[in-house]
Amino acid sequence: MPEAAAPAQIARPDGWQVLKRNRAALIALGFLAVLSLVAIIVPILLPAGLKLTSGDSFVPPSSEHLLGTDVNGQDMLYRLLSGARVSLGVGLVGALISLVIGTLYGMVSGYAGGRVDAVMMRMIEVLQSVPRILFIMILIAALDDYVKEWVDGWRLAAQSNNWPWLAAAMNDLKAYSKVLVMIVSLGLVEWLTMARIVRGQVLVLREMTFVTASRAMGQGSWGVLRRHLLPNLSTIILTYLTLTIPAVILDESFLSFLGLGIEDPAASWGSLLKDGAQVINPLESKWWLLVFPALLMSASLLALNFLGDGLRDAFDPKSGE
Length: 321
Prior knowledge:
By secondary structure, this protein is mainly α. The chain has helices at 15-20, 23-45, 76-112, 114-128, 132-160, 164-174, 177-205, 209-216, 221-257, 269-279, 288-315.
C-alpha cells in the first residue's frame, strides 16, 4: 500500500515579515496584549476596598479613584477592567466556536461539491435570512433558566459532597448564566461568513495537484481535509478570526446594553455603557461613567480591526494582487 503523502503547503511570501512592516498592526497587537495582561492582573492587585460597594457614589475622577465611582460607589477602574475580561473573553470564545463550526462546514461543503455543496449553501442562506440579534435574544430567553438550574444542581451536589470551593464557584457562575448562553448563541450565528470564506478557498485548493496526488495514493477524504487542506487554510482562518472577535464583542455589548447580557454586580463593556447612559442628563452629567467605557471599547475594536487587516494583507495570497 502506498505511503501517505506528506502535508503540502502552497508557496507564499513570509507573512510574518510582511506583518512586521505594518506599523498599525503591530501597535494594535501590542495594545491588545497589554490590555489583556492589565485586565487579568490589575483587578487582582487592586485594594479590596475598591472592589466593594460603598457610600461614595458618583465620585468624579480623583487621586483616590482614578476613573471615578459608579452609582454603587464601586471604583470604575476595577469595573472597567473586569468588564474588559468579560467582553474580550466572550469575543474570543464566541469567535472560536464560530471558527470551529464554520471551518468544518465550509471544508465539507467545498470539498464535496455538487448537490451536497448546493444544499449546504442553501441552508446557510436560510440561516442568514433570520435576524441574528432576534435569534440570540430568543435563545437567551429560552435557555437561561435551564442553565441556572444546571448550575444550581452542581452547587447543591458540591455542598452535599462537602466541596465548598466548587459550591462557591458555581454560585459565582450563576451571575454569568446569560453570558454562557450568549457565548454559545453568538458562536452559532457568527460562523456563516467563516463557512463561506473557507468553502471558497477549498473549491480552489481541491483542484490543485497535491490534492489530486493524495487521492491517487489512496488517501481518504478526511485525510486530505486534515493533512493538506487545513494547513493551507490556517492563515486565512487566523485572519478572519481576528475580524470575527470585534463582531462578537459588538453583539455582546448591544445585548448587554439592552439588559439581556451580564447581570450585576458583574460587568461588561455593554452593561457599563448602559449604566452610564442611564445617569447622563443635561443638569448633572456623570460623564466618566460613559466616556471611559466607550473609549476603551472603541480603542479595542479599532485595534482588532487594524490587526485583522494587517493579517489579511500579510497572509492572503490575493491581497497583493
